[in-house]
Design brief:
229 residues, alpha/beta, Rossmann fold, five-stranded parallel sheet, 9 helices, 8 strands, binds cytidine-5'-diphosphate
Amino acid sequence: MKTLISIAIDGFSACGKSTLAKDLASMLDYNYIDSGAMYRALTYFAIKNNLISANFFHKNLLINKMEELDIGFVLDENDKNCITLNNNNIEDKIRSIEVSNFVSKIAEIHEVREKMVKIQRELGENKAIVMDGRDIGSVVFPDAELKLFVTADIDVRTKRRLLELKNKNIVVNFEEVKKNLIERDFLDSHRKDSPLIQVEDAIVLDNSNLTKEEQLIIAHNLALNKINS
Ligand code: CDP
């Protein structure tokens, strides 16, 4: 029987982690989990329920309401893994700039992280998983057989995210997106609870000058080495 491994992919905002994680999972016939989508789903809920805005943040109310929330994933008709909130598919609602602007404030709450990490570990208990995020190699799966730390130049990342949003008919400008990425990188790297760090056993993948096919080949080879060793 083939050895099954866990693959943790961490890194800065919009550096192509999700694309890489998704493609790698499909090549290996593994499950793919976008952990960021879970924090985005909760942020979407908080915005919709007037728990967070530029002027206020009802943090304790959100923590209490979180008890009633069921966050999970479902495969849609195209076999795409979509985030669900109380069984509603909200995948097309969580990538807005509004959600992006508040998500790191919500992701720094200890109770939020506890809930998400518990779900993420359950999803990965049988291995054969590729999960991307900020704390996957450090906190969620510290024993993952392969850990990648993905990074890219900030302007390259901004252009990629702009294109991604444009393809989803979301209109934003370069400076707005860049500012959001810089702010999130700062908050994610400096928070007290499970900050984004490059763990010692992670392999750094700077994909500024790599196509998605090139980065996939590199990651796939690294995964095969682990699977066959
Ligand atoms: O796709 P992008 O790189 O823009 O971000 P994401 O993966 O969708 O994550 C959105 C936000 O969720 C991040 O900026 C973090 O604040 C938070 N997050 C986290 O704290 N821990 C994770 N494992 C994943 C995301």
